[in-house]
Amino acid sequence: QVQLVESGGGLVQPGGSLRLSCGASGIRFGINYMGWYRQAPGEERELVASLTSAGSTNYADSVKGRFTISRDNAKNTVYLQMNSLKPEDTAVYYCNANVVGNYNYWGKGTLVTVSS
User: What are phi and psi of 25, to 5 degrees?
Assistant: First the structure.
């Protein structure tokens, strides 16, 4: 059974930092990429950052220079380091794994709230 489990969300003041983690297990097929998406209230889910198996990264324009996606293969974990957080970064953040066959697995999400 595939599981993606996010952690690290919480309440942070504007300008602060958080690091999200996504532990992956049970994925039997090759991973094309892993990514972080977010969904704010009343908004559609959007891609925040992705990391291919070859190590290429892609970021939403709104987070470039502030967020960094990385992975620890030994721990089957993907991270999202978020710096200089803004109130508009408030959302539920979801971990995603895209595998061979273009199938997507999703975590249940972790809430990030940026507020003073």
Answer: -145, 155
Distance (Å, whole) CA 91 – CA 40: 4
Residue 95, burial from CB neighbour count under 10 angstroms (0-12, 13-18, 19+): buried
**Could you report the per-residue pLDDT of 55-74, keeping only the tens digit for each?**
999 999 999 999 999 999 88
Neighbour-count burial of 69, counting CB atoms closer than 10 A to its CB (0-12 exposed, 13-18 middle, 19+ buried) = buried
Closest CA to 62 of 36, 98, 41: 36
Beta bridge partners of 37: 47, 94
Contacts of 73 (CB under 8 A, 6+ apart): none
Per-residue DSSP letters for 31-87?
EEEEEEEEE-TTS--EEEEEEETTS-EEE-GGGTTTEEEEEEGGGTEEEEEE-S--G
